[in-house]
Write a structure and sequence with these properties.
Elements lengths: L4 H7 L10 H9 L4 E4 L6 H11 L3 E5 L3 H13 L4 E4 L6 H9 L5 E4 L7 H8 L3 E6 L19 H6 L6 E5 L4 H11 L6 E3 L7 E7 L3 H10 L5 E4 L3 H11 L6 E4 L5 H13 L4 E4 L14 E5 L5 H8 L9 E7 L1 H13 L5 H16 L4 H8 L12 H4 L4 H12 L2
Parallel strand pairs: 1-6, 1-7, 2-4, 2-5, 3-4, 5-6, 8-13, 9-11, 9-12, 10-11, 12-13
Helix pairs in contact: 2-3, 13-14, 14-15
The structure holds adenosine-5'-diphosphate and magnesium ion.
Length: about 400
């Protein structure tokens, strides 16, 4: 090791202290022990490999599933003076990157998982000095995860051919079952699992069966203050809801993949700058946006999974002030989800079904929502949180059975 980790934290990153489990994760990595870190979005996963990449001799190879994500990360790393590069099919300066890598002039090198099976790339790795493998979005390696990428399965042989190089897998969204699978798939021991706290105590969770979704969303929003996000399931749903909510006295903009990229960028920038705007969006919205004062997130329909729900609602209240996550759902959401599952590849159906069942348990419970969420991520939680709809006003036995019937008849 060439530099003290705390000095690097202060001098390079400008942070006063580690946050949450960061010091634990960084400590293990610097000890050369294989690790899986499960930390919520925004918890600071990047630092867990960026810092070791500066403390250790050699390059940290970062596996990341999306080129756009890599380029964001690259910019952020370079901004604090880390010597970093990407090696992808779209890069024009590949020769230069390879030369820098060979010469030991890179702290971080970002690659896509499919490169792992490329023989000339493996040769390149053998000719260079590797300090660490960082596998970002590691849930992609698991068929139980919500975003399985077959390319991630190519990583294990590569990792195993460099047994002396430690591995750090990172993910925000893996339930207990997926966590165990990632450990197996990537050859990380059970005691290498570090799960950060998932609780977001300032977010109030509320889940309501729907009658007329758009009217319920409008009524909910009329009672809220500050900026918020409304997630609709389809582009058409976004358009309709945005129209309905417009003219209610505060700015409303749509966001979905069908809009012109320039319009999308403009709407996103307007939202980030606004103190009272409602953005109506598909789930494509929110990845990587930095707006700490989002006061509410509404789901106008069932999300895809508990992981998705947690991630999307997690965009509310990052400043720590009170925020609300309101979900409206109907029995037809479950019917449609079941139909969709029937159409996916047979091998993936059990995982998808388990995910839907878990979501069903969250929406139909008469008990604490937070407890179900936290336990889903393998965290213990008290019986009641005092800050979800069911804890704040326990449903009567009649309400509860009506809800249960809606779910069961779906
Ligand atoms: P993740 O990948 O877990 O979603 P990031 O690595 O993108 O999170 O980090 C989220 C934000 O937290 C970044 O703006 C980062 O600079 C900041 N951050 C990370 N570690 C710390 C720390 N120890 N103290 C303060 N801010 C931090
Ligand atoms: Mg990240």
């Amino acid at each position: 090791m060439t530099r003290d980790p705390l000095d690097i934290l202060h001098e390079t990153f400008g942070f006063r202290s580690f946050r949450g489990v960061q010091d634990q994760v960084v400590g293990r990595v610097l000890d050369g022990r294989n690790t899986l870190a499960v930390m919520p979005t925004g918890a600071g996963k990047s630092l867990c490999y960026q810092l070791p990449s500066l403390a250790l001799d050699g390059t940290c190879l970062v596996v990341s599933p999306l080129i756009a994500l890599m380029h964001d990360q690259l910019r952020a790393a370079e901004a604090v003076g880390i010597r970093a590069a990407t090696l992808t099919s779209v890069d024009e300066n590949r020769e230069e990157t390879i030369a820098r890598f060979r010469a030991g002039e890179l702290d971080l090198l970002y690659v896509a998982p499919e490169r792992a099976s490329n023989e000339s790339f493996r040769n390149l790795l053998r000719q260079s000095k590797l300090a660490l493998f960082a596998i970002d979005e590691a849930h992609c390696v698991s068929e139980w995860g919500h975003d399985f990428r077959p390319d991630y399965r190519l990583l294990r042989p590569l990792l195993d051919s460099f047994p002396e190089v430690p591995r750090l897998a990172l993910t925000a969204t893996a339930d207990a079952h997926t966590q165990a699978d990632i450990l197996d798939q990537l050859g990380i021991p059970r005691d290498g699992l570090i799960v950060a706290g998932f609780d977001r105590p300032n977010i109030r969770y509320a889940i309501t069966p729907r009658e007329n979704t758009n009217a319920q969303v409008a009524e909910f929003i009329a009672a809220q203050q500050g900026p918020g996000i409304v997630y609709a399931q389809t582009r058409a749903g976004v358009e309709k809801l945005a129209e309905r909510l417009g003219g209610a006295g505060r700015p409303v903009l749509p966001y979905h993949a069908g809009l012109d990229p320039a319009v999308r960028r403009r709407n996103q920038a307007a939202f980030v700058a606004s103190e009272d705007m409602v953005i109506v969006a598909t789930v494509a919205f929110g990845m990587g946006i930095d707006k700490p004062d989002v006061r509410f997130v509404v789901h106008a329909g069932l999300p895809k999974s508990i992981e998705g729900y947690y991630q999307e609602t997690g965009r509310a209240g990052r400043d720590g002030d009170p925020a609300v996550a309101q979900l409206f759902w109907g029995a037809d959401d479950f019917a449609r989800a079941r139909q969709r599952i029937g159409e996916v590849e047979a091998a993936r159906q059990p995982g998808e079904r388990a995910r839907l069942t878990a979501l069903g348990a969250l929406v139909e419970t008469a008990g604490c929502r937070r407890r179900i969420l936290l336990r889903h991520f393998g965290e213990d939680a008290p019986e009641t949180c005092g800050n979800c709809d069911n804890c704040l006003s326990p449903p009567s036995a009649i309400d509860a059975s009506v809800t249960a019937q809606k779910f069961l008849s779906a």
